[in-house]
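A.,

Following up on our hallway conversation. Structure tokens first:
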């Protein structure tokens, strides 16, 4: 039997890699990891965590406005962007330390350098070769900005977390969840905000009712939404940036952020050279056990470009560790994976959209409720909430739930358990609600929509 320096060498210290490393080490494997940027990966450093902290900050001005309806007299306070960024940085540094300690306590060797795969059992780190029985690629994804005249003047979502000053006029280009979230953040923090998207409606792949509803709510909050619109050129002018648009018009601003997609972070890792198959987008191709076309090399998380969510990467890391070092299969079930968009207001979903359910199940029954939350009967806000259930008519099983409203993710997370367990609409109907809450609407929707 060949002798290797390590049983498992992981490239990437994000959520998936850290979970796989910790679990594999706890099962007795000798594990090393290389992380060239920051422990915790995208989610901790330039993704989920700082983005939600910014989203909280953007909500504060609404809370100040709403307070008057409840009798509070709060003077208009000033907002200090550098304070938010500095406090965010402190929290991220704290989390970086936690991730490092998790690995240290598990006995994983962490190398803060770039690793490149030399062959099926060798990685090169800092000029020296390290051998491993197995190699795991968990390098995540990276923002992609298309190349066009002036594209170098745009920032990406990573850059947005470290701006020295907040722009007065911000343009967000893109139609995915990152673009939607940052449009809400910039708008909530007081920027004159426009979101451009080349398609007819943003958030493709989400439920159509939710997409339309969210667009209306964002417009009410002041975000200018321009669909079927694209940027052909960016130029620097004396007072900022000028965008030339595909309809011949121009738009002036101080900052352009592109959130037009992320690509698997697989370039220059030596993957192609040692025979690992990639798809056209650079995603690492894997089988059901996360094994690539080279048997000793595995990949999990966003670099495989499947369901690009932190909890999915965590689950894959756990499943791989059990498969490799406990010889037990704990496969990840990718059906009914809940997710949330921390837009303003929040959108959360689990299961099938109405269109997907009709295609898969045929006959479906739809229950939908739009209402003004109790809070806003006094706050003066015109914000409304949407809740929608998609039911397979033949089995009465609830196969989809979609919500737009405050803390939608908190509500959907609990609902995801019931839907994953196979709850029927009759079970929802027999469940007693908590009054007065928005969540009770899930169990009080009785009449299907046409």
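Then the amino acids I'd put at each of the 450 positions:
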């Amino acid at each position: 039997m060949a002798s290797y320096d390590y049983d498992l060498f992981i490239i990437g210290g994000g959520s998936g890699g850290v979970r796989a490393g910790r679990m594999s080490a706890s099962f007795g494997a000798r594990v090393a990891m290389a992380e060239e940027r920051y422990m915790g990966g995208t989610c901790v450093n330039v993704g989920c965590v700082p983005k939600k902290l910014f989203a909280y900050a953007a909500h504060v001005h609404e809370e100040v406005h709403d307070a008057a309806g409840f009798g509070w007299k709060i003077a208009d306070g000033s907002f200090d962007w550098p304070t938010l960024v500095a406090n965010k940085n402190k929290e991220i540094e704290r989390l970086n330390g936690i991730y490092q300690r998790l690995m240290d306590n598990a006995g994983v060797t962490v190398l803060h350098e770039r690793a490149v795969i030399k062959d099926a059992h060798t990685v090169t780190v800092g000029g020296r070769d390290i051998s491993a029985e197995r190699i795991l690629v968990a390098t995540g994804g990276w923002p992609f900005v298309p190349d066009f005249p002036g594209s170098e003047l745009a920032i990406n979502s990573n850059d947005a977390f470290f701006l020295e000053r907040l722009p007065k006029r911000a343009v967000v280009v893109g139609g995915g969840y990152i673009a939607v979230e940052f449009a809400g953040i910039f708008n909530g923090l007081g920027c004159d905000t426009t979101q451009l998207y080349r398609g007819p409606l943003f958030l493709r792949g989400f439920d159509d009712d939710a997409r339309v509803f969210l667009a209306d709510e964002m417009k009410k909050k002041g975000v200018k939404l321009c669909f079927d619109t694209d940027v052909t050129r960016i130029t620097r002018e004396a007072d900022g940036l000028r965008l030339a648009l595909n309809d011949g018009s121009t738009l002036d601003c101080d900052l352009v952020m592109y959130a037009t997609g992320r690509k698997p972070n697989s370039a220059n890792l030596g993957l192609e050279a040692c025979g690992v198959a990639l798809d056209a987008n650079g995603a690492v191709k894997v089988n059901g056990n996360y094994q690539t076309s080279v048997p000793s090399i595995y990949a999990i998380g966003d670099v495989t470009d499947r369901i690009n969510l932190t909890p999915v990467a965590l689950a894959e890391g756990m499943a791989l560790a059990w498969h490799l070092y406990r010889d037990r299969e704990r496969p990840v079930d990718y059906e009914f994976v809940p997710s949330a968009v921390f837009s303003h207001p929040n959108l959360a979903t689990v299961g099938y959209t109405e269109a997907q359910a009709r295609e898969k199940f045929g006959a479906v029954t739809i229950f939908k409720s739009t209402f003004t939350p109790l809070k806003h009967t006094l706050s003066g806000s015109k914000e409304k909430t949407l809740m929608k259930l998609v039911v397979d008519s033949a089995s009465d099983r609830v196969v989809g739930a979609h919500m737009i409203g405050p803390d939608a993710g908190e509500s959907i997370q609990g609902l995801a358990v019931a839907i994953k367990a196979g709850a029927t609409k009759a079970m929802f109907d027999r469940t007693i609600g908590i009054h007065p809450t928005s969540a009770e609407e899930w169990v009080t929707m009785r009449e299907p929509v046409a």
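The chain has three domains: 6-142+263-325, 151-260, 339-443. Curious whether your intuition agrees with the design.

B.
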